[in-house]
Amino acid sequence: MVDTPTADNPREPDISHENPTRRDEWFGHPRQLARLFTTEAMERFGYYGMRALLTLYLAQHFLFSDQTTTGLYGGFTALVYLTPLIGGLMADRFLGSKRSVKFGAILMSLGYLTLCFGGQPAKPYAMIDGQRYEVVQQGAGENIKQFVVANGAPLQIKGNEDKSVSLLAPDGSEARKIPAGGFEAQGERNSFNVFLLLIGLALVVVGNGFFKPNISTMVGTLYADGDRRRDAGFTIFYMGINLGSLFSQILCPLLAVGMGSWGGLGWWAGFALAAAGMLVSWTLIQFDGGKLDGVGDRPAGAPANRDYVIYVGALLAIPVAWFLFSNLMNYVKPPEGSGFVGYVTTLPIMGKIMFGTFLISVPGILIWSFLKGTKTEFQMMIAAMILITFNTVFWTLFEQAGSSLTLFADRNTDLSVFGLFSISAGQTQFFNAAFIVMLAPFFSIMWNAMARRGVEPTIPIKFAFALLAVGAGFLFLVWGTQFAGPDFKVGLWWLAGLYLIHSVAELCISPVGLSMITKLSIARIVGMMMGVWFLSIAVAQYVAGLVAQVASVETVGGQVTNLQVSLNTYVGVFTTIGWVSMAIGVVLLLLAWPLKKLMHGVK
């Protein structure tokens, strides 16, 4: 605690005439927290701004299919959660948090800048019965139409409910009908531009591994052991995440694709703004004016001559990430009837790594706990692993926001705001951050008030409510689709309602997860358990991409061929997701009492 200056202490200046807040404090916390808060806010500004664009960029600029788009997005976000395990280890053993954060910031900035060089949009074409046809587009926005050029004449492409495709003559008559599976939309892409895309994503992934875990570690070092301000300090710090993401998810899509009648400056502008935010984050740490001296320095006794070895190793990891992304893009589903074994053997390399590591680590740690721990410790570890598994399910469903829900917003949502102006599909992701900023203080007050009265829900019940709520959000949106207009689009506020319900769900599970791990884990392996926690989220991100692939619809030139088919597809998938999530939430509610016994008083 900070000593309070008094007139009886001649070594301390008399500041009774000044503001009671100490000059070396910021809202009652170490002043360095303000710089770290801003650094994290600008880093999240860059990351979430880029993420708001990524799915639409893949689908509309590179003309990847929905399956490739959502699979690549899921793989990217999975690695974003996996690499901090290695970056945190390198900082703890060799670099220190500050050097790691600066190095990570540089790589992420370069990654966002690399995404700016997407080149010309991919050129659409179609394969019909093994023959290639040129595809041209007319109109813009909601009035865009696609045509196949056959024998010099344009035939409009129209998707049908039975998945067949009709080619319409200029008078509207059906010139040709192609059965389901006979029409394959493709995009002619510059291979170098695709290479740059994957390199940019790889730079972000590796850089994030060094930045993300270590900026939080620096905040922790501001407080001595037992300092009661620590939790409040982290609460302030994490508010920077939501503030940064809130503004970037408005501004980056605005520059990239515009708003209303303004078409924006282009994809490059949105990614450039993300890079600018990341550069500001790096500047705050690199040129700190001595304000962060002693914060996040190299560990005592760590050799300084290992730095360049680690930097070179990180750079060598970039082509490894590129290879994983390339392998993911080239994934081909196994033929029907292959069974579980066929499915597992044909998984992309990233999927095998994710699932294999998770399926080995969970039972492995439990076996170790049984052999090395006490009966109580073993039971607490069982409870922790069960909750980690349910946490994986939650994030799998919640993280549809950046993939299938963004595509739904683009295709089947009326993005008009009270008829005054329209937002872009990427900007709909700002709803979550806005609701978190508004609701987080209320939830903090509510949990504290319930705790004082002894009625605060247990951790399993909070987790169960989160699963029930995420399912309820999807079912709420499905309900709204009943009121879709003749254009097969639902009102924006139904989507906003989903994000409101999902934000409530997030506040029930996200803030208590890491705390739960530290309380239930055996002290000797708490670091390993933290790794399993983040691994579970990485697996969830990957599986979220697989779930989003189920909602894939036929597109030509980045546009769906039949909005009714698109709406029906999303309704079917979201309905299934909603009821499955609700059912799993009920299962966890039933397990809440036995889990409470296994937790031995941990709340």
| Residue share in β-strands | 5-15%
Shape: globular
In which order are the strands of the major sheet placed?
A: 8-7-6-5-4-3-9
The number of distinct helices, counting runs of at least 4 residues, comes to 17
Any low-confidence stretches, pLDDT <50, length ≥5?
A: 1-22
Helix content: 55-70%
Average pLDDT reading? 86
User: Biggest β-sheet: count, sense, barrel?
Assistant: 7 strands, antiparallel
CATH topology of the domain at 26-122 and 189-331: Growth Hormone, Chain: A
Q: For the record, give the distance between the C-alpha atoms at the N and C termini, rounded to a whole number.
A: 27 Å
CATH superfamily of the domain at 26-122 and 189-331: MFS general substrate transporter like domains
Rounded to the nearest angstrom, the radius of gyration is 26 Å
Can you tell me the CATH architecture of the domain at 26-122 and 189-331? Up-down Bundle
Specify the structural class: alpha+beta
Overall strand count: 15
CATH class of the domain at 26-122 and 189-331: Mainly Alpha
Question: How would you summarize this macromolecular structure in one to three sentences?
Answer:
63% of the residues lie in helices and 10% in strands. The chain has helices spanning 32-61, 66-82, 84-95, 97-115, 191-220, 230-257, 267-286, 307-329, 339-345, 349-372, 375-398, 404-412, 430-452, 459-481, 492-520, 526-550, 563-599, and strands at residues 25-26, 29-30, 123-128, 131-138, 145-150, 153-159, 165-168, 174-178, 183-188, 413-414, 416-417, 421-422, 490-491, 555-556, 559-560.
